[in-house]
Write the structure tokens for this entry.
Amino acid sequence: MPRWKPDARERLIVAAVELFAENGYESTTVIEIAERAGLTKSTFFRYFPDKREVLFGGGAVATLLEQTIEDLPADLSAREVIAAALDAVGSQTFTPETREFSGRRRAVIAANPELQEREALKGLSLTAAMSAGLTRRGVPELAARVAAEFGALAMDIAYERWSAAEGDEGFGVVVRRALDDVYAASSAS
């Protein structure tokens, strides 16, 4: 019988979040994460440079956002592009199967300042990816930056709402509502 099992990356992520929730981020080691996932320490490091990065997925979401923005039809406004890109990324990343896990991940991050800092840096990379994608579409730089900032804020709000909710409302619906809320709040001030 082979020792290899599929989905090593996902098993490491799930094991890490479970252990971080049980024992705290600081008290959990890479070896414990690998053992919980039924893998070795070297396998862990094949997927992640450190235990912190297991929660953040590298730059996959930023790359997906940027590519999606570039691939959307040219006749869409910057706001429509951001909404469509966030919806598309959400349908691939924030699925009904990941909702409970996302809530646990969010709680682990909220309990640790180091992880909060990394989450903020991830948010900046998402904003930069959206802005870069819009700029390549021909959106003026300032307009691209503003739309990207609104998009990042809406994504953050939507992630918080969606991961805490107990319904079957998809991330796309939640993120579009959050984007509308962000635009409405900006015009009300």
Notes: The CA atoms of residues 109 and 116 lie 6 Å apart.
